[in-house]
Task: structure prediction
Amino acid sequence: MVTIACDALSVSLGQRRVLDGLSLTFEPGRLVGIIGPNGAGKSTLLRAMVGLLPPDAGGVTIDGEPIAQVPRRDLARRIAYLPQGQTVHWPISVERLVSLGRLPHLAPMSRIAKADSDAIERAMARADVSQFRDRIATELSGGERARVMLARALAVEAAGLIVDEPLAALDPGHQIDVMELLRRETEAGLLVIVVLHDLTTAARYCDRLVLLNHGKAVDDGAPMAVLTPDRLREVYGITARIEQNEDGGFVVPRGRVA
Result:
């Protein structure tokens, strides 16, 4: 299990302050959705939480330890990170690509052991890409590639999984499959943090939503407590039909605020 905490975290990209004093704690066994309009700081937050962006102020801890002090290999074993828009530039098989998720567990020049092979098989099965194992990764469709890259992240078998827009390029059926997969991961005790744009998906699957705007957390809580008409008007500049049902709720944008 893993807990990630941001303490007054501020991050700039160039001259622009992208995150501004965020204090958030993410605990295991939860599916946390990060939502907000374009440019709100969602991807920057994820990158900062895995140590890819240095803070201007504040910091990030993993299980109470400053992330900057955690050895990179150890961090990669504890948190699996899948950024958005992943591309593949080399013609390797899907199975070989998924196996790259085991690199944090391997010593230099070592070979994949049975435990690694088993983890790779489990990851491909969970992401529903086992049938692609012998295909060349560069020949996959966008949706197929997205699922393979998710399998690579799952192959790490980390206690925390951070995923940036995993539903892009997926058809509706596979969007459902991915979100149900992420739910199962939390039921097994993992911490899963996911950036989402579809508000109905966020309402239906997430335990908690963090709503970002201009680098600040303007709301944080249960999905239907965050997705209110006033918040959607204020942050997204939209009106929407919002209803709660047995699936958690749905949000249908109606139009821009005049």
The first strand starts at residue 4 and ends at 13. The chain is about 30% helix and 30% strand. Residues 155 and 222 are 30 Å apart (CA to CA).
